[in-house]
Amino acid sequence: MLYLILLSLGAINFTLTIEQMAILGVDSLVIILLTTSFAGMVMAYQLSQQARMVRSEFYVGAGVVLTMARELAPLLTAVVMAGRVGSAITAQIASMKVTEQIDALRSLATNPIKYLVTPRFFGMSSYDTAPYYVFYSRRNCRRLFVATVRE
């Protein structure tokens, strides 16, 4: 399947790819923000209970921010995105198969892999990796700036 997708690189429909980026990526932000917010609140509550015992409540905010930013938020984002996007794509394609829309695409001489799978694959892979590119570019710029200032 991946081989067929990679063969169709020259025939990417950018309109469908951007539409799938909006449907699969942007529409998932609400549930991701809710999930990570509630996980952060629970973590702050539990950490504050433990910090109160050793009288270091002022470290709770930094501890929650570091833990959420480094460990828990990317993990929760990946799990929620995999569940939501995987089920959405499966439901869409399964309902198209049941209502014989995929057979209709074949009868119109349209490759269903190029029309259905390729935009979803590239839309999700480009949307899902975009925050990592931004994070690493900001991190490398900060290193460059700090190295320049120190010299």
Attribute tags:
mainly alpha; 151 residues
Account of the 3D structure:
Helix 2 (14-24) crosses helix 6 and helix 3 (29-53) packs antiparallel against helix 4. This protein has helices at residues 2-7, 14-24, 29-53, 60-98, 101-107, 112-150. Helix content is 84%, strand content 0%. The longest helix is centred in the middle third of the chain and has 39 residues, at 60-98. The model is unreliable at 144-151 (pLDDT under 50). The protein contains 6 helices and no strands. By secondary structure, it is mostly helical. The chain has one domain (13-150).
Task: Describe how the helices and strands are arranged.
Layout: H1 2-7, H2 14-24, H3 29-53, H4 60-98, H5 101-107, H6 112-150
Helix pairs in contact: 2-6, 3-4
Tell me the series of helices and strands, N- to C-terminal.
Answer: HHHHHH
Major sheet: size, sense and barrel closure? none
Radius of gyration: 22 Å
Q: What is the total number of structural domains?
A: 1
Instruction: Please count the helical segments.
Output: 6
Q: How much beta, percentage-wise?
A: under 5%
The low-confidence runs, each spanning 5 or more residues with pLDDT under 50, are 144-151
The averaged pLDDT comes out at 78
Distance between the termini: 52 Å
Helix content: over 70%
- The number of strands is 0
Anisotropy-based shape:
elongated
Secondary structure class reads: mainly alpha
